[in-house]
Amino acid sequence: MIPLSWYLILAAALFSVGLYGVLARKNAIAILMGVELMLNAVNINLVAFWRYQAPEQVVGQVFAIMVFAVSAAEVAVGLALVISLYRRRRTVVAENIDLLKW
Amino acid sequence: MTTESLLWLLPLPPLVSFFVIVLLTNRNKALSHAIAVGAAALSWLLGMVVFVRALQTGMEHLGEEPFRSAVAWLPTGNTAFEIGVSLDPLGTVALFFVAWTVLMIFIYSTGYHNYGQPEGDHDLKGLPPHGATLTDESGHKHTVPSVEPNYSRFFAFISLFAFGMYLLVVSDNLLTLFVGWEIMGLCSYLLIGFWFAKPSARAAAVKAFMTTRIGDVFMLLGLVYLYSLAGSLSYEVIFSPETLEMLADTAAVGGFLGLTAAGLIGILLLVGTVGKSAQFPLHVWLPDAMEGPTPVSAMIHAATMVSAGVYMVIRIFPILSAGGGHGELTPPMMTMAFIGAFTALFAATIAVAQNDIKRVLAYSTISQLGFMIAALGIGAYVAAAFHLMTHAFFKALLFLGSGSVIHGMEHGVLHTGNHDVDPQDMMNMGGLSKKMPITFWTFTIGGMALAGFPFVTAGFWSKDEIFAEAWSVFANEGNPWGLFVLVMLGLAALLTAFYTMRQIMLTFAGEPRTKEAEHAHETPWTMTLPLVVLSFFAVTAGWIGIPNDFLGLNLGKINKFHGVVETLLPSEIEIPALEFSFVPLVVSLVVALGGLLIGWLLYKDFKAGQTDPMKRLLGGFFPVLQNKYYVDELYQATFVRFSEWVSETVAFRWLDRAIIDGFLHTVARVAYNLGSVFRDRFELPVIHNAGDLAGESVKKFGFNFRVLQTGRVQQYMLLVLVNVIAFGALFYYLLEIAGK
Description:
The complex is a heterodimer.
Chain A: H1 4-24, H2 28-53, H3 59-89
Helix pairs in contact in A: 1-2, 2-3
Chain B: H1 3-9, H2 12-23, H3 29-57, H4 59-64, E1 67-76, E2 79-87, H5 89-112, E3 132-135, E4 141-144, H6 151-170, H7 174-192, H8 199-230, H9 235-238, H10 241-249, H11 261-276, H12 285-288, H13 294-303, H14 305-315, H15 317-320, H16 331-351, H17 357-377, H18 381-416, H19 432-435, H20 437-451, H21 458-475, H22 480-508, H23 515-518, H24 525-540, H25 561-565, H26 582-603, H27 613-618, H28 621-626, H29 631-705, H30 713-739
Helix pairs in contact in B: 1-3, 2-3, 2-6, 3-5, 3-6, 5-6, 5-13, 5-18, 5-24, 6-7, 7-8, 7-14, 8-11, 11-14, 11-16, 13-18, 14-17, 14-18, 16-17, 16-22, 17-18, 17-22, 18-20, 18-21, 18-24, 20-22, 20-24, 21-22, 21-26, 22-26
């Protein structure tokens, strides 16, 4: 088998890419996509640790499936928020949503 | 009700009346005078009940054991200063004449102030009423007397005054006597200045108060000294034989003039009477006091207040005579004999030259009070008390009568409209006997009593008794003072009869000398009834003092009076009954009838426009008499100017403005400057600016720091990332260090 660290490095890289997307993209939906990437990176981590540490228990898989479900729900809510935002402000550029400034 | 309770209650109705009128009924004239006269009547009634009970007890017994009741009032260490009421024979006499004269004067006042008349056309409060114009049906206008604008105020003040006098008469100690004395002094001021918008009345009121005040200061000194030696001011204590002996044996403080303590106290208290009873040299206030309404003159300056002075001196006679034996006069008595006799003659000479009807009576009062003081001076206190009583009646009668005359004349003045005519000037009168008969007869009776017309007037008996005592002191005891007093008082009595007749002739006899006198008419019953009542007493009050052996006849115990007042002195000293002698009787008859005759002869043909026969007789001396020997001018130039200088310069400019105000202004300036220093050096930089600094710095911080809050989520998240990395590194290294 390939070493665990390869998977972890992969997950870290993926996480960083996702983080970069969240911090640097203008479009709110693109930000959400970055968030999805980060969640997937987390999933890779979880599964890797399951397979390499305790493959006989099923709890690792269950944990990964929970994360999927949660991320899906959370994205739905996030998209709903973006739609509502668009309807109000006619824009989805994150920089323009700055009403809570001083 | 016990007599003592009645005595406590006696002074109260007029006091209550005063407060009720001042606080409640001032606007309502009828109610005010009803309350005042009712209160006076109530006090009169109580007084008469007490008088009858006193007579029933019998005068000798009353002298031994007067009615007395006292309460401890002021705690003074272990003991207490007691005040209370008491009635002995002297008090009985005083109560009798005070009650009658006060009631008569109250009733008279309702008429004098024209109750029931319309309000005047242009009457102002504080000025005498000027008359109201009435138009009858035919359109004919005539002026009638108008009602006094300050009617209720008058009754309030005379009620307070009556309270003061009753208090003085019933009190059993010198302190409440002094309180009553001062209350009357105050009311005298208020009433003389009753028409306060007249400058002459204001000046007269101040003069009266100031002059009597001088007397009162010395009297207070005497009271204080007496209290310090005797430990009490109650009559019971200070007139006991032990106290009198102690006072007579102690030398006066500092060996003052070689007097005994009794002598000094006597003289000090005597000065109080010199002020209050207008003796020389403090007599100057009484003639000016005629500025007040006539009932005031009658009450205050004839019947009651000036009598209070003599009453007090009779009361303290034991102290005045302490240390003297029979026939020997103590220094206070000699002082009294001299001042009294001198004043009697001095004032009588001035009265001869006065034209104002009230001024004559004023000087007459001064003179008669001099008679009483002189009588006391030679030891004849019974005669003095007798004359006090009769004088109260006939002098009040004369003053009220003069008020009636003035009213009649004012009616004439209102009728003719000529206000330059002085209704009080006797030269403008004449013939009033036909116009005002009741006034004429009662005034004549009073005048005869004053002159001492023999046998049927009260004044004769009391004056005769004074002469008899003076003669006895000279003839039987060999004291030259008796002769001095007899001669001086005899001359004064001659002048008294003369000026009285002059007054009666000028006012009532002959034909009216002016139009105003022609239109005078009699005054209403409220004024003439008191005149009639008082004239009854002016005739009969003397008869209780007829000596038992008059004219050598044995008249039995007709003289009730002697037994009355002789009980003032302790019973060890015997008063020998006065033997009858023809000398004083002849003197009395000669001076009285002689004076009356001369007056009648000189004035019976006096017509309008003639010069006063006195002017012709006295020539250049007449203006001296008319100007009262220029005593007022002398006092003005010396004492008054000096006092005004002290007030204006020393007290006001130096003490008040420079020293006291200067001190205050300096304190204020110092405080202000100190405050400014504190404010500028400390409060402003330290507290104020520091407070501002705190706030401002927080604001600045916030202002600069708020740029962090951009509202852009991505930047927030970037910040979070940075912080996480930073803290993570920190914890990693910390843990590593900790692990090592």
